[in-house]
Structures are given as structure tokens and as C-alpha cells.
Amino acid sequence: MFQPMKKLAMIGCEGIGSVHLEHFLQFKDIVELAGFCDLVPEKAQNFCDIAGSGKAYKDFKAMYDEVKPDMVFICVPPFAHGEIELETIRRGIHFFVEKPLALTAEMARDIAAKVKEAGIIAAAGFQCRYSNLVEPTKQFIAENSVILVEASRITGMPELAWWHNKSKSGGMLLESTIHQLDIIRYLFDEPETVTTMGASGWVNKENSDVDELTTTMIRFRNGALGMLSSGCYATEGASFDSNITFSARDKRAIHRIIESLEIHEKEDFTPGEVAYFVTKGDGGLSKSAKITSYKQEGDAGLACDRTFIEAVVHGDSSKIRSPYDDALKTHLFALACNESLATGQTVKVTYE
Ligand SMILES: NC(=O)c1ccc[n+]([C@@H]2O[C@H](COP(=O)([O-])OP(=O)(O)OC[C@H]3O[C@@H](n4cnc5c(N)ncnc54)[C@H](O)[C@@H]3O)[C@@H](O)[C@H]2O)c1
């Protein structure tokens, strides 16, 4: 029997929305690009033009009334979450939402509870979970007792007015470095406590109150410790950084999100021998280390979007790697860091 194609809509037609749109152009076999909404109508119209289908809207409720989408991609900034999701759930529309889920724990918890009640499919934009580097890193962690996790995300300040305002973006940890927090949770372990310090004074961007650098100490539930640096102070790509190093006693894995994985180990390891291959006396990397390298293959974001859309089309969410209720935990992890930053206290991370 003929089944009409499921209808997809989008709210927020700018930065990340355009990345999703590029993906959707490859999904016309399974979904109809039916509606685009942005507070700036020209942006929504531009997306319709690129899609070659759909109607542009300024008000997402009017779009829902007319288009009656089966699913929606919510690609709005952190401060704009809440009403959109609650109305989407009320109407039984499946949704994919960009990180961070909201600015507060209360809002994200409320949405998660209502998603569960309504029985709809809801996923979050943690596309890094779909990278081919995930499996070998997971294997490394399963086969080795990891003691220390060191992560960093050092960038420049994005040119987005709302990003510089903590009350709109939540600051860099919640807005951006949440990808690192998410991958650490997804691959390694849940955090027990966090202690975060912040500093500023290098960029001094007008009207910005985000911390230019934060460092966070993490105690994991399995007893390991972690260290995370998150900075937007860098002016040059040469001083950018992004990596997560998982260190065991005799080897370590350097996971660069959606880029590469390197496993450093001793070339001819003899059990019981003193392992000296990671650093030499001068702090340099020993030449005797054997390095196994993996490269990112394919587009993790494309896989992430396709997985959500197929879940809605087939009514089976089992392949989604970042369901809303799990993304909520990453959200609470980031908010605990922000609370520690604000209070100067160590904060227990609780998901209940
Ligand atoms: N998953 C990722 O790797 C990734 C990458 C970039 C951005 N993001 C996330 O996506 C979100 C959006 O970031 P961006 O860079 O696209 O921002 P942006 O400012 O470039 O685009 C947001 C768009 O949403 C529109 N908008 C805001 N409120 C709206 C509303 N109520 N109804 C309709 N439209 C509305 C704005 O007019 C704007 O066009 C952020 O939370 C960001 O963290 C995720």
C-alpha cells in the first residue's frame, strides 16, 4: 500500500541548521523537506530555496498547524529552548534538538519527563558519538584500566552575539565543550564530582562575560581522575587544541573527536618490565613507542541525522546513540561544572 513520505521541518535556519540542511539534501529518498522556520523570514526562505521544497515560516506554531510535520530539527540557540519543545511534545511530533538542551536543569528535566510520557522519539545533536573512532576507543578502555583522562577544547571566540552572553549561551563549557564532556561520559565513565575554576582577561571582548578559560577536575565513579581545559582565548589555529587522552599504566589513547585516534604503546612490551616509553627524561615522546593510528571515516553528523530520521520513519529508536534522556545526563554534568565555577565549591553530579 502507498505510504506518503514522512514530513520533516526545521526551526532555526542559520549556523548548524545549514549543516543539517546539507545532510537532508541527501535524504530525499526517505523524507519530505516540508517546512522551515526562523524568526528572520528571509533565512527560512533561503533554506526552502536550497531544499527546493517546503514553505517558510516565522512562527513555528503556524508551521506546525499547516505542515503537520512528523519530525522537526530544533536548531536554535540555548536561550530559545523550552516553549518550542513543550509545544512539539504536546503535538506528538518527534524531534532532534541541538545541544545544549536548555540553559537550566529544570527545563531539560521537564522536557525529558514529557518526552517519556508522550512516547515520542527525541534525540540530541551529539554527533561525535557516531564517529568510527568510538569503537576502537571503547575497546581500548575496555581492555585497559584507565587512570587519568586529560581533555581540552581550546578555540577562539565565535562571532555570535548571543554566545558572548552567559545568560544566553550558558558559557563555553555548556555551549561548546559539552561535546568533550559527552564523549568522556559515553566512552569512559560517569562523573562523581567536579571542581571548576575560571579566568579571563586576555580577550576582553566588549559585552562578553563568558570565562575565557576554565579548568575542571573530575572524579569519576570508577575512581579515575580527569582534567578538562576549555578556552576561547586563542587567536590563532596554531594555539587551538582538541583532544581527550585516556592514560593507563602502560599505554594511552589520544582521541581527537571526529578526527583521529592514536594508541601509544611499547613496541615489544614484556610484562613486568618497567614501562618508560611514554616520556623520556627530557619529557619527550620515546621513539620506542608503537603508535596505532585511526582516521575519521565518513561524516558522523550525516550518520547522526540519518539515524534519527530512519528511527522516525521505521518507528524504531534503538539505533539512536544520543536519546534525549541520556543527553540530559551530559547536560547535568556541564551544569555541575558551571555551578562549581560560580560557587568555588566541589559539586556532586547527580542525575536523579
Ligand atoms: N552539534 C554541533 O556540533 C553544533 C555545532 C554548532 C552549533 N550547535 C548548536 O546549535 C545551536 C544553534 O547554533 P547556531 O550556531 O546555529 O546559531 P545561529 O545564531 O547561527 O542560528 C540560530 C538561528 O535560530 C533562529 N532562532 C532563534 N530563536 C528562534 C525561534 N524561537 N524560532 C525560530 N527561529 C529562531 C535565529 O534567528 C537564528 O537564525 C546552539 O545551541 C549551538 O550550540 C551545535
Please sum up the structure shown.
With 352 residues, the chain is α/β, with parallel strands linked by helices.
Give an overview of the whole structure:
- This protein has 2 domains: 6-127 and 300-322, Rossmann fold (3-Layer(aba) Sandwich); 129-297 and 335-343, Dihydrodipicolinate Reductase, domain 2, CATH 3.30.360.10.
- Helices cover 32% and strands 25% of the residues.
- It is built from 11 helices and 15 strands.
- The chain has helices spanning 15-24, 41-51, 60-67, 83-90, 105-118, 134-143, 166-169, 172-175, 178-187, 300-314, 324-343, and strands at 6-11, 31-37, 55-57, 71-74, 94-97, 122-124, 148-154, 191-199, 213-220, 225-231, 241-247, 251-256, 260-266, 289-295, 347-348.
- A 9-stranded mixed sheet has the order 14-13-12-11-7-10-9-8-15. A 6-stranded parallel sheet has the order 3-2-1-4-5-6, sandwiched between helices.
- The model has no long low-confidence stretch (mean pLDDT 94).
- The structure holds nicotinamide-adenine-dinucleotide.
- Nicotinamide-adenine-dinucleotide (NAD) is lined by residues 11-17, 37-40, 43, 60, 75-78, 80, 98-100, 125, 127, 160, 175.
Q: In terms of topology, how is this protein built?
A:
Blueprint: E1 6-11, H1 15-24, E2 31-37, H2 41-51, E3 55-57, H3 60-67, E4 71-74, H4 83-90, E5 94-97, H5 105-118, E6 122-124, H6 134-143, E7 148-154, H7 166-169, H8 172-175, H9 178-187, E8 191-199, E9 213-220, E10 225-231, E11 241-247, E12 251-256, E13 260-266, E14 289-295, H10 300-314, H11 324-343, E15 347-348
Parallel strand pairs: 1-2, 1-4, 2-3, 4-5, 5-6, 7-10
Antiparallel strand pairs: 7-11, 8-9, 8-15, 9-10, 11-12, 12-13, 13-14
The chain binds nicotinamide-adenine-dinucleotide.
Nicotinamide-adenine-dinucleotide binds at residues 11-17, 37-40, 43, 60, 75-78, 80, 98-100, 125, 127, 160, 175.
